[in-house]
Automatic annotation (TrEMBL):
Pfam families: Glyco_hydro127M
Ranges for domain Non-reducing end beta-L-arabinofuranosidase-like GH127 middle: 417-497
One example of a Gene Ontology biological process annotation: carbohydrate metabolic process
Name of the protein in its database record: Non-reducing end beta-L-arabinofuranosidase-like GH127 middle domain-containing protein
InterPro entries, per database record: 6-hairpin_glycosidase_sf, Beta-AFase-like_GH127_middle
Annotated signal peptide: 1-18
SUPFAM superfamilies linked to this entry: Six-hairpin glycosidases
Keywords associated with the record: Signal
PROSITE patterns: PROKAR_LIPOPROTEIN (PS51257)
Amino acid sequence: MARLFSLALLVGAGCVYAQSSSGLAPKKYEYLPLGAVKPAGWLYDQLIVQTNGLAGHEHDFYALVAQSDWIGGDSDYSDLEEAGSYWFNGMVPNGVLVDDPTIKSQTQQFLDYVLDHQDETGWFGPEVNTTKPRYLWGRYPFMFGAIQIAESDPAQVGKIVPALHKFVALANSMLKNGEGLNDGGWAKTRWEDFVITLQWLYDNHPDGHEDLLLETMKLLKWTGDPWEEVFSAQYFPTGPTEDLQNPFDLPLVWHGVNMAEGLKALPATYRFTHNQSDLDRVSEGWDLLFKYHGRPSGIYAADEYLAGLEAIRGGSYLYQVIGDPKYADRVERITYNALPATLTGDMWARQYLQQQNQIAAKNMTPNPFPNDGSYSNVFGLEPNYPCCTVNHPQGWPNIVANSFLTTPDKQSLVHLYLGPFSTNTTLANDNQVTVNVDTLYPFGDTLATTITASKDFTYYVRIPSWVTQGTIAVNGGAAQGVAPQNGLHAVQVKAGTTKFVLDLPAEITTEARPHGSIAVHRGPLHYAYDIARNATVLVQRAEARAQDLEFDATAPWQYAIDPSSLKFNNNPPASGSLPSPIFDSGLPPYTISASACQVEWGVAGDTFAASPPENPACVGAKTTITLWPFGATKLRIGEFPVVDLSKQ
Ligand SMILES: *[C@@H]1O[C@H](CO)[C@@H](O)[C@H](O)[C@H]1NC(C)=O
Ligand SMILES: *[C@@H]1O[C@H](CO)[C@@H](O)[C@H](O)[C@H]1NC(C)=O
Ligand SMILES: *[C@@H]1O[C@H](CO)[C@@H](O)[C@H](O)[C@H]1NC(C)=O
Ligand SMILES: *[C@@H]1O[C@H](CO)[C@@H](O)[C@H](O)[C@H]1NC(C)=O
């Protein structure tokens, strides 16, 4: 009732806030247009694996995406209601970043169809001329994809931008009439996605519609779920939410994916409220989320996989608006650990839920998840929900596209997410800049960067918080300690060519986990025991590569480790390049060895490891086990019981 009341007030006062508005606050950093940053080295290969995997083939065989279904199809998922939009949003940047003509033509066809079928009211997609109720949300990911096409191919701006403005005018009138936001649907929780599109128009192509854009942003905020309250310490859930009474009577705000989406809401709001409280609240909410629900893989519990994708995107946006390095460190950890762990190495199968201690991936008996199906930790085409099948392609392209930023005055370039890249852009004063970063990071500690520039400028590179005794050597000079301020180290670049080498070592660290267990980290990577497995094909399809797979352990996994014994090993590839794919058993060059012994450790049902035993006694001889980067393990122990083996 209170929410309805504030909506009525807001609509009634429409002309007042439109006139008194002082526009949008600038972001701290801006990303570069899609295509200006390209993946290189192993990261390019990872996108090729994705292109050759499920993501790159959905358009050929997967009914929810394949063209024959989405033109005129009426399933709940196809069209712009979810499947088509998600797929488009991921495959637009995938196609551009690896310059794949097939994928680019598929996404172009999709864009053309949707825009060519915009009706006179402004509604677009296959849903025109139908009696379907009109809900706004499904169109939000489509608009993200359309924006990325406009950025990568400015010749299409003249077609895309007017279509978006026409849709905004329609959405504005729908919101004022109380239409477009279905109760129990996503539009009220994910309003921030539309706000971000409106801000892109405002920042880049306002075309005289500034007031309407701002008014629509405010309508969305005041009709949408109240994230400033959800993320307050007073209401934040500090444990599992199944048995808690939701104080807002809005259970969807505690849905894992929506929470990740909601992280973007307050910084998006801040840009038009100019209320510092919005930024402080999201910072507190971020800390609460990871304090109470965080996992060593970087992500937080609850619908982990899709939440992971959204947290990558949300964290990137938070960094761009706020500039706090904690967001960037977290995004990098999720990307290099939780994301690849939940896909097979060849990226033909994915899970819905992932576990830190995952001793099997199979149809679960009993099913421990109150809200998710028993099939949700199988690796397959669409375990549990089809949404991740169509949404998973956005993870890697997004990290690449957001890895370089500029300061708002466009004088400086910032290398945010570390990895191999090549970048080509024009900074302020027509400063033509290219950057090549040659590295195996996160499977290597050194990054060799070559910059060419037509003018002098200041270049920034992020130094992650876990780096100890990092050094930089510029133009062949002596290595000097890095001196980051707010997470960024400045390099003064002269016109011409500048080269520097960063060395960013890190100590092995352990993280305390429940029941006295520990998780092991070094730098951006989390390390786990990779349980030997066999695979059983559960479902075979006409597309032979799209199988559903059960994984079972074929070796003991009941190990406790001695934290004092942890030792880092590097086995760099002789060829200089990493194997392809890299995220599978036995492949990464970095490992950690640990003294260990087997202990009594039971199972819960036939699928899960019970909680790690506290203060266990060895039941087997002292041995040495190898811990591998978490993303390369598909069955694993990531949280270990602890033993003292120093006297054995
Ligand atoms: C809607 O249907 C009418 C009648 O079949 C057709 O003329 C019109 O082009 C259709 N509109 C769109 C946007 O597809
Ligand atoms: C800023 O946001 C806080 C928290 O939502 C709110 O209590 C306060 O009234 C807002 N300030 C202004 C000036 O709107
Ligand atoms: C960078 O982009 C500019 C403009 O598109 C182009 O002329 C130039 O050749 C590119 N440089 C490199 C090294 O790719
Ligand atoms: C996998 O290993 C388990 C445990 O050893 C065994 O019971 C099962 O039959 C094996 N499955 C396959 C497909 O080899």
